């Protein structure tokens, strides 16, 4: 195996294939490929050689091409989105001095295939760290002379027609996001290139470090991250959401596994756009998005749009700060019950419009909730009617005492309450969230 100054230049590939359901697997929805189970986290994206990593990595400038009318139109679109984002973010940007803002990150008190890129740009299969045998993915060797020696991560799509088409859609969406963000400041992972190898579509991305689930486990110590770290990451995720909305894109799988952090722990980026779609391309399904982060409108069978992603970000922010999953339901039915435990009953008007409401609610005057449980003795499913669901512990109660900065904690509670509004029409949007006091105003007390 070749080495570069004694340090291996590794990048990961994830072969995402069809799998049987069960456990923490996500049920397949429209235009979706099966995902790595939640219990295993997201695909690791390896950090390459220190010489090539971090701020010192270089990329070749694209060759100069004269602008035609289409390029001019693209430039105008980029300028429009940039202007909208500037207005939404305002003058005070918490990421201006990211390392200073971050402070202490801690509170006190599908098959994996590793590629090793050699100096000639070849991607050699290294089976020493395969989750399953190499034959499961059918990948042996890949070569892309255009990418040469750039630090990168590879995603290999399993070779079948359905997944190849889904991979092509992912590539289209990633390119649209990149074209609208030429400076790379909108916190969405950048696609460096793509190539076909033995009927496999291979996507090549910039290399980042661990995902937010791994980071929370490593630094959260079971109690979550510091308020300063949560504020920084929340701001950047909201910038990413604003960018998606400006480009008319729904991520449709927001969760800690699909948000990557850089090696310095100062930047996060949304990644894994395999479930992404353009706004308006919304087939009703109760299984879109990983279950713990699935918005209520998806479960109930209502039309969904950008508020669906905002719900996911709200769940992620809560998890970062507490180290706990907010809605760890085992089924869609239990998810609705947990949501009402925190947010209260669903608006009846919302339920009357929901395509799948009949699966969870009765048709009586109260629209009583039907909780499906398992009899502890017979192990058979049972139904328990809850005529008037009530709040057991709201967001304020769940976050009580989590930080000595009471003002900032109250702001976080308010922001999460608005991110997690049951009615998507009343949920806060990225533009308004970026102006929220929790994001705009600095911390007012030392970290606990």
Written account of the structure:
By secondary structure, the protein is of the alpha+beta class. The chain has two domains: 10-52 and 110-206, no CATH class; 212-440, Orthogonal Bundle (Transferase(Phosphotransferase), domain 1). Helix content is 31%, strand content 14%. It is built from 13 helices and 13 strands. The protein has helices spanning 69-89, 98-102, 161-179, 212-220, 227-246, 296-300, 307-322, 332-343, 348-353, 395-399, 406-419, 430-434, 437-440, and strands at residues 10-15, 111-117, 122-126, 141-143, 152-156, 191-197, 200-206, 249-250, 259-261, 268-270, 277-278, 369-374, 381-386. A four-stranded antiparallel β-sheet has the order 1-2-3-4, with no helix packed on it. It has a three-stranded antiparallel β-sheet with strand order 5-7-6, with helices on one face. Strand 12 and strand 13 (381-386) form a beta hairpin. Helix 1 packs antiparallel against helix 5 (227-246) and helix 4 packs parallel to helix 7. The chain is globular, with a radius of gyration of 22 Å. The protein starts with 9 loop residues before the first strand and ends in an 8-residue tail after the last helix. Mean pLDDT is 76; it is low at 1-67, 84-103 and 109-150. Residues 1-81, 123-143 are annotated as: Disordered. Its EC number is 2.7.11.1. Residues 128-439 form the Protein kinase domain. Keywords: ATP-binding, Kinase, Nucleotide-binding, Serine/threonine-protein kinase, Transferase. Residues 8-18 have a biased composition (Low complexity).
């Amino acid at each position: 195996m070749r080495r570069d100054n004694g340090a291996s230049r590794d990048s990961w590939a994830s072969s995402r294939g069809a799998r049987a359901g069960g456990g923490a697997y996500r049920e397949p929805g429209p235009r979706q490929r099966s995902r790595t189970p939640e219990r295993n986290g997201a695909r690791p994206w390896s950090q390459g050689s220190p010489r090539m990593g971090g701020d010192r990595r270089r990329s070749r400038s694209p060759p100069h091409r004269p602008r035609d009318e289409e390029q001019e139109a693209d430039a105008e679109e980029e300028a429009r989105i940039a202007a909208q984002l500037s207005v939404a973010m305002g003058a005070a940007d918490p990421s201006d001095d990211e390392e200073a803002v971050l402070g202490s990150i801690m509170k006190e008190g599908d098959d994996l295939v590793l590629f090793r890129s050699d100096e000639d740009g070849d991607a050699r299969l290294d089976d020493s760290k395969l989750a399953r045998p190499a034959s499961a993915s059918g990948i042996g060797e890949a070569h892309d002379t255009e990418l040469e020696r750039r630090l990168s991560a590879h995603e290999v799509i399993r070779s079948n027609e359905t997944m190849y088409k889904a991979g092509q859609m992912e590539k289209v969406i990633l390119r649209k996001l990149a074209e609208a963000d030429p400076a790379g400041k909108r916190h969405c992972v950048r696609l460096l290139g793509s190539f076909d190898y033995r009927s496999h579509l291979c996507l090549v991305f910039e290399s980042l470090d661990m995902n937010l689930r791994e980071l929370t486990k490593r630094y959260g110590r079971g109690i979550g991250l510091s308020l300063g770290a949560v504020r920084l990451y929340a701001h950047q995720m909201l910038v990413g959401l604003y960018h998606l909305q400006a480009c008319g894109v729904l991520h449709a799988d927001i969760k800690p596994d699909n948000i990557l952090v850089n090696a310095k722990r100062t930047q996060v980026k949304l990644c894994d756009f395999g479930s992404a779609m353009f706004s308006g391309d919304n087939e009703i399904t109760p299984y879109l998005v990983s279950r713990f982060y699935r918005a209520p409108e998806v479960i109930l069978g209502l039309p969904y749009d950008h508020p669906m992603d905002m719900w996911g970000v709200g769940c992620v922010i809560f998890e970062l700060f507490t180290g706990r999953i907010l809605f760890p339901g085992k089924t869609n039915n239990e998810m609705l019950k947990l949501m009402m435990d925190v947010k209260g009953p669903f608006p009846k008007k919302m339920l009357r419009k929901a395509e799948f409401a009949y699966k969870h609610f009765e048709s009586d005057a109260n629209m009583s909730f039907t909780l499906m449980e398992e009899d502890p003795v017979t192990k058979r499913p049972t139904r328990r009617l809850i005529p008037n669901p009530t709040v057991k512990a709201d967001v304020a109660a769940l976050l009580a005492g989590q930080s000595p900065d009471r003002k900032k904690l109250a702001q976080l509670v308010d922001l999460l309450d608005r991110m997690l509004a049951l009615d998507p029409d009343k949920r806060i949007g990225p533009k308004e969230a970026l102006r929220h006091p929790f994001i705009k105003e600095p911390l007012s007390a030392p970290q606990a």
